[in-house]
Amino acid sequence: MRKLLMIMLLCTPAFALAQNKAVDSLKNILTATKADTLKADLYYQIALELQRMDPVQSQEMIDQAMVIAQKLKYAKGLANVYAFMSVQYSNRGEFDSMRIASEKSIRIAEKNNLPLIVAKGHNGLGIYYWQTGNYSEAVKNHLAALAIREKLKDTLGICASLGNLSLVYFDNQNPKKSEQYALQSLALARKVNKTTMIVSCLQMLANVYGQGGQFDKALKMDAEALAICKEHNDTRGLSQVYSNMANCYTAMKQYDKALQYQQEVLKIDRFFNDKKQISDTYMNISGIYSEKKDYKTALDWMKKGLVLSQESKYKQGEKLGWGSLSNIYEQLGDYKNALQAHQKFQSISVEMINENSNKQIALMQTRFDTEKKEQKINLLNKENTIQRLSISKQQTTIAIIIGLLLVSVLVAGLVYNRNKLKQKALLQAEMLRHQDMMTKAVIDAEEHERKRIGADLHDGVGQLFSAVKMNLNGLFERISLEREEDKFLAENTLALVDESCKEVRVISHQMIPNMLLRSGIASDLKSFIEKIDADSLKIRLETTGFKDRLESNVETMLYRIIQETINNVIKHAQATQLDIILKRDAREITAVIKDNGVGFDTERAGTFEGIGLKNILTRIEYLRGTIEYDSAPGKGTTVTVNVPV
Q: Which stretches make up the Histidine kinase domain (predicted)?
């Protein structure tokens, strides 16, 4: 099937456009109508339909809508035109113009009580802030749009807002949240059969799965989106599909196929004159040549991409461009330019960092969820008021059956007591659930902070050490050291810097166990153990029953528990032998960690105040498991962990 698609791609014109039925129908209505305001609305609707197929005709239609709306001072028409222009500016990478158009749309819509168009304006601002790297403001505006659309039951608008939130969370390194919003958006898009939104959702999911290494799943999303785009002449959608497919093939090391798809993407990007997208495509092509070790060609493509990202003020692209350029120069041996490019990469990274960004995003998400709950509570209160009014009108009837109430009181008392016990049980369950949520939040926050610190060590300190090593190498090659002690000092200095680089890399990898996302806990533990000096501590690992992967949270927490226990043995036990048995059956997972070290008095275990032990207990509590220590001074230690499946 993939070969057939390639043949079709090569044998048909890249941009052969045919008007779809919706456009033809709207044009027929336009010809027949005499009302100018309706004409403005029709021109706007036709422009929307053509936006992803024919940008030239689409622009002509929206220009006509603008002329009529300005002439009649038609507020709804003007607000819609500015919202549409915001999208056009985004497609062309003109982000300052995009922000201005969105703000104009919001002002006009708010002044004339047009809430759905206010939502469109916030949607535009959300995309602007996402494109320019301000994720907290992006989330704020998309949530504002979503709140309006949910209140007015605007299904298509809700679908769009959920999809846009998925994009922001994906770029903000939160693939789980991104997948959640993309799946919600896709379900709504399928429900209303909106093909452009279905394509966008499928491409978002393909991005998430591709980044997670699930290439078959990503290409499956691409194949479905490709069929829809070809059926509906969705040229811009084709650009997204081909780009994702190219990225998957690059990751799968099928470079010729990846380059072929990227060239098709480039044709479409140039057709739409989309500087931001052209910049992305140039950089993606550069990345393929870097993978192929053709660094000179990679350099040419990366420079062209960087120029366009600077012209369109696409900060995320500019940051990635300088970082990639630094690596290319280093591979070519041009260390001076490599260092300068890396310094520019760091400078832009610092500009884009907002220490409170993630906190603000979480706060806005919580506020949005709280407002929704309050709306539900208000609705329930109104329903209760109606019920009370109905009861008051029935008092006459109740008086007739007053005798029965005596019996009812007795029954009601019994029911009340029973309900009271039920409510008490529900309250206890809710408190336990809340406690679990709080524990999970603390652990998630710790994992997030580990990732952030590990990334900072790797990308910040690690890169600086690499630059220092590179500069020292260059310096020692240019100067002559006559004395043996000077040479010895120089060699020692280089060795220390090299050792520091390795140490930072090891620490960053321990903070972020990337393999945990790919291999499963058994392989991950084996990889972790292989990094420990076998001359100091011999470790034997035995695992059974881990053919299938665990749920991701359980896997992460169990890995951290065993990792922390091993670290405690290395730091405190003075052991030479460590045996680890990890097994899984239908009921539970059991981990036994046994060393031949100095041991300790288990009766004093409760007095230990180490952060590591507290972290272990917190994770064990969250997993509803148990941990036991069997030890005595001079007799080694055995730690047994049991976690229910």
A: 558-645
